[in-house]
């Protein structure tokens, strides 16, 4: 499995696309949270990373499908998937190897953003940031990234076209993150059902963890979504 993980890592950084994706992600974050006046963390008047943790999922929604779109689609297109299947590896090992390889890249993109927390802590005149909520938010952001990775990998397992894999992966991530919140606003759910509809979406559980309290129910939700898409990916590659 770790051989596949290493291969996924090497494949992403074997072309300029991988480096460009990470640089654009970090550059866009830097511009939004320190330069653009409407979203700058320095203009809040108090030490808080709420703006970053509200906008970061939307950036990841496009970054992660970019990372995963080639995972299996390129294997199909180049004909190397048949060679991959001849290795002494089971289908779950191939799938989880691809998953962890992509997830390590996502983690690599998130680690530099911790400088925002250290910067605000140093710049704060008094009190500093809420450390507990910040740690919880990063845990939530990592779990959200793991779900997006599983979705993107699953989308890549359906097609040999990377563009189709990117668009379908980003669309499903959008539905899971914001679709249920939008659905709960419909009048038909105004009798108290809106809360339960929101619970089906990622944003509800992401916000819950971001408060600094890691509820086991939220963690189970994220793990269940990841497992569902990984099982679907496994079935897809076995059909191949």
TrEMBL record:
A molecular function (GO) term: ABC-type transporter activity
Tagged with keyword NADP: no
Higher taxonomy: Bacteria, Pseudomonadati, Bacteroidota, Chitinophagia, Chitinophagales
GO CC entries: plasma membrane
Domain of life: Bacteria
Keywords of this entry: Cell membrane, Membrane, Transmembrane, Transmembrane helix
Record organism: Parafilimonas terrae
Chief place where the protein resides: membrane
Protein name: Protein involved in gliding motility GldF
Claim: Nucleus is one of the keywords in the record: no
Cellular compartments annotated: Cell membrane
InterPro entries found in the cross-reference section: ABC-2_transporter_component
Coiled coil: none
TM regions (residue ranges): 12-35, 55-73, 94-115, 135-155, 162-180, 219-237
Membrane topology, record value: Multi-pass membrane protein
């Amino acid at each position: 499995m770790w051989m596949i993980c290493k291969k996924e890592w090497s494949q992403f950084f074997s072309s300029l696309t991988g480096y460009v994706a990470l640089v654009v992600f970090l550059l866009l974050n830097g511009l939004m949270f320190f330069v653009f006046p409407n979203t700058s963390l320095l203009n809040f008047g108090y030490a808080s990373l709420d703006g970053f943790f509200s906008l970061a999922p939307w950036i990841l929604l496009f970054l992660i499908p970019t990372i995963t779109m080639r995972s299996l689609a390129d294997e199909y297109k180049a004909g190397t998937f048949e060679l991959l299947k001849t290795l002494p590896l089971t289908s779950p090992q191939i799938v989880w190897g691809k998953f962890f390889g992509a997830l390590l890249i996502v983690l690599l993109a998130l680690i530099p953003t911790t400088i925002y927390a250290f910067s605000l802590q140093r710049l704060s005149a008094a009190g500093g940031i809420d450390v507990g909520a910040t740690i919880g938010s990063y845990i939530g952001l990592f779990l959200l990234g793991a779900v997006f990775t599983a979705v993107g990998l699953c989308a890549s397992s359906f097609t040999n076209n990377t563009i189709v894999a990117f668009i379908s992966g980003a669309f499903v991530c959008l539905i899971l993150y914001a679709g249920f919140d939008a659905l709960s606003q419909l009048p038909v759910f105004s009798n108290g059902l809106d809360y339960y509809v929101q619970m089906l979406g990622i944003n509800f559980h992401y916000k819950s963890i971001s408060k600094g309290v890691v509820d086991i129910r939220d963690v189970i939700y994220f793990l269940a979504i990841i497992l569902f898409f990984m099982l679907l990916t496994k079935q897809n590659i076995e059909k191949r």
